[in-house]
Amino acid sequence: MANVRANRVAEQLKKEISDIIQRDLKDPRLGFTTITDVDITGDLQQATVFVTVYGEEEERKKTLEALEKAKGFIRSEAGKRVQLRKTPEISFEFDESIERGNRIESLLREMKERE
Description:
Layout: H1 2-23, E1 32-40, E2 46-54, H2 57-69, H3 71-81, E3 89-94, H4 97-114
Parallel strand pairs: 2-3
Antiparallel strand pairs: 1-2
Family: Belongs to the RbfA family.
Keywords: Cytoplasm, Ribosome biogenesis
Subcellular location: Cytoplasm
């Protein structure tokens, strides 16, 4: 049962954090950012937010720096929007799954062309 609640809270945090980043953050270092997933512990104390950024490695680094700097603001705003006793601590990580999927797809396409 706790797992179901954690999943619901994670989905709500994903929606709200995405909205906060898109509408409320005005940092010029933020690139084209998408929240792909939120992983939250069973006790709802820690949340890892997975982010993809369109652009080169330098733009990704700048975006993660901007998100880390705005972490307190994002947590505060998320706490106002999601009704929990205690708002989870937030950490941001770059989600490499899309890049990995694109790489696998290109390798499969190359193999098919060789046949």
